[in-house]
Amino acid sequence: MTSIYYQANRSYPLTQSEQEQVAQILKECEKSYPFPERGEALRQYSYDPADPACIFSGSAKLPYPYDDDDETMEMQTEALFFLIEWLTSVRRVIPDAQWDASLEDVELIWDEENGYRLMTNEEYEDYY
User: Fold this and answer.
1) Which domain of life is it from (predicted)?
2) 127: pLDDT strictly greater than 80
């Protein structure tokens, strides 16, 4: 199963306002996720006191395959762009953190104006 992973680090924890905003985004994301029976929306991992710099982390799973490969590809593509949009919303709530986000082991690219996106073919070739 393919997943998106994300983590935000900074020297101080989430503020109350940030916590509330992130919780609302995650709630709305889960409520509107188009394939709840086949994957999972953005979710937040529990805070780990052993790693206090990690103030937010989580994952999301793209829908797992149906028997029809074309339908699966369309569903996974729709879910991927849906999740990237919601992850962008979370990052905008915590803009001063150091973020890492990836689709499995391939990092997502951050663009201040447009948010997260996938790598272009050229970027991917340079990445590996």
Assistant:
1) Bacteria
2) no
